[in-house]
Design a protein that fits this description.
Layout: E1 4-9, H1 18-27, E2 51-60, E3 63-72, E4 90-92, E5 99-101, H2 111-115, E6 122-124, E7 129-131, H3 137-140, H4 153-157, E8 163-167, H5 174-182, E9 198-200, H6 211-214, H7 220-224
Parallel strand pairs: 1-9
Antiparallel strand pairs: 1-8, 2-3, 4-5, 6-7
Bound molecules: iron/sulfur cluster (3 copies).
One iron/sulfur cluster binds at residues 73-76, 79-81, 99, 116, 118, 120-121, 132, 193.
Length: 240
């Protein structure tokens, strides 16, 4: 069975939120950009995000790192959000594995959002139905679109190509190769939900500053008078 999914490279994501705004343009408000759909600048702003980018800082100052972590519905292969739905509104497509909500059947009871361990579902307060990432099901199955545009809006918008899209059950697909070769992993596999989306891990980058770079006239460290860690001298002490 085909299982469509996203593979997100955490080493490449720069946290620009282009995926968030392009998702909203295609799927929800169309205009609110990174803000909520209704009353974005007033009291009681409401609205749904199908995709959010969470940013974390970790480590101990000054040795801290920033991690941008995009998260949307992971289109689980064993989705706990589906069997809890009392109306059958929440379902998994048998042909491509995308997990969807039938808005005509949804009664807004929120059982599915309590069952989802990833916090991927959000109630639409205006329409009183449950919303979440559809993998842009209307785009990816639109045969009127050129084939290279039959991709989720977030994938097309990402300026760093951090978001890959394809069939994770096809061993030769771009996403399967990336998972295999770059150590892709699912989120919280211990919950048994078998998320179809995967993440590619951040890789450690070692920075070696060559001596030539220290004597460059435009070296910003020189302007700021920052002490090189290893020598204990200010750069002004160094012969330029
Ligand atoms: S991430 Fe949550 S909403 Fe999406 S399929 Fe898995 S359990 Fe359901
Ligand atoms: S909120 Fe809608 S989709 Fe979710 S469990 Fe209730 S009826 Fe089903
Ligand atoms: S568009 Fe790409 S780089 Fe920008 S936040 Fe989304 S995943 Fe990261």
């Amino acid at each position: 069975m085909t299982q469509l999914a996203l593979v997100i490279d955490l080493n490449v994501c720069v946290g620009c939120h282009a995926c968030v705004t392009s998702c909203k343009e295609w799927n929800t408000s169309g205009w609110a950009g990174p803000m909520t759909d209704q009353n974005p600048y007033d009291a009681d702003p409401t609205g749904t995000f199908f995709n959010r980018v969470q940013t974390y800082e970790f480590g101990t100052y000054p040795n801290t790192e920033t991690l941008h972590f995009p998260k949307s519905c992971l289109h689980c292969e064993e989705p706990p959000c589906v069997p809890v739905c009392p109306t059958g509104a929440s379902y998994k497509r048998p042909d491509n594995g995308v997990v969807l909500v039938d808005y005509d059947k949804c009664i807004g009871c929120k059982y599915c959002s309590w069952a989802c361990p990833y916090g991927a579902r959000e109630i639409d307060e205006k329409q009183r139905v449950m919303k979440k990432c559809t993998l842009c099901i209307d785009r990816i199955s639109d045969t009127q679109l050129p084939e290279n545009e039959r991709k989720p809006a977030c994938v097309l918008a990402c300026p760093t190509s951090a978001r890959l899209y394809g069939d994770v059950h096809d061993p030769d697909s771009e996403v399967s190769v990336a998972i295999r070769e770059q150590g892709g992993y699912p989120l919280m596999p211990e919950w048994g939900t078998k998320p179809a989306n995967h993440y590619l891990p951040r890789r450690k980058t070692r920075i070696h500053i060559h001596e030539d770079e220290l004597v460059r006239v435009d070296n910003p460290l020189k302007k700021e008078g920052i002490k090189p860690v290893e020598t204990g001298e200010t750069l002004d002490d160094v012969a330029w």
